[in-house]
Task: inverse folding
């Protein structure tokens, strides 16, 4: 993001130098470039934020899945112990009653553990869905900021050609499209 910010400042600085030439149209183009640079920096920051949120949500999804796997493993270990006590109790012997009592201690735990694991898996799915939404926003914002960067470059052509209007008008149109695309990341999603 630092590179993008310094790039925008560089464009604004070049525009400022061009503005000192005294041509009012060149001054207008220079101000336009500075405004587009500010918009591009803002959209670029939003793009970075969405990328970070996507990564964070995916990390939380992985954590929820790990916890769910741990709960399932614990459930399976308890089920194995219960089964071993049941087998030992069925074999009879002096400790059959103790084995039956131990086996009964595990009754009911299984349902709670499976419910807990399923809840964690539900949380995982929600986090993955949120991550996808942030990632999609990031991609849309990338398209928007790219249009804004190109708009800056196209506006610069108006300065280089010493007053050609079509690049300036095209840059304004591209800026509008870039802003609309960027807004769509939040309005449409």
Result:
């Amino acid at each position: 993001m630092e590179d993008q910010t310094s790039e925008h400042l560089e464009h604004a600085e070049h525009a400022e130098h061009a503005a000192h030439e005294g041509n009012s149209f060149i001054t207008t183009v220079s101000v336009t470039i500075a405004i587009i640079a500010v918009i591009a920096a803002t959209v670029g920051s939003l793009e970075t934020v969405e990328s970070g949120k996507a990564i964070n949500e995916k990390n939380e999804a992985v954590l929820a899945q790990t916890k769910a796997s741990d709960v399932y493993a614990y459930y399976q270990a308890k089920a194995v112990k219960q089964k071993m006590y049941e087998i030992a109790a069925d074999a009879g012997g002096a400790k059959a009653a103790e084995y039956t009592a131990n086996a009964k201690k595990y009754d009911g735990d299984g349902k709670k553990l499976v419910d807990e694991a399923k809840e964690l898996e539900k949380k995982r799915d929600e986090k993955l869905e949120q991550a996808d939404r942030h990632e999609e926003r990031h991609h849309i914002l990338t398209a928007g900021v790219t249009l804004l960067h190109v708009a800056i470059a196209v506006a610069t052509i108006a300065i280089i050609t010493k007053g050609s209007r079509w690049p300036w008008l095209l840059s304004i149109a591209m800026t509008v499209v870039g802003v609309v695309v960027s807004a769509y990341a939040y309005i449409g999603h």
In short: The chain has a mean pLDDT of 90.
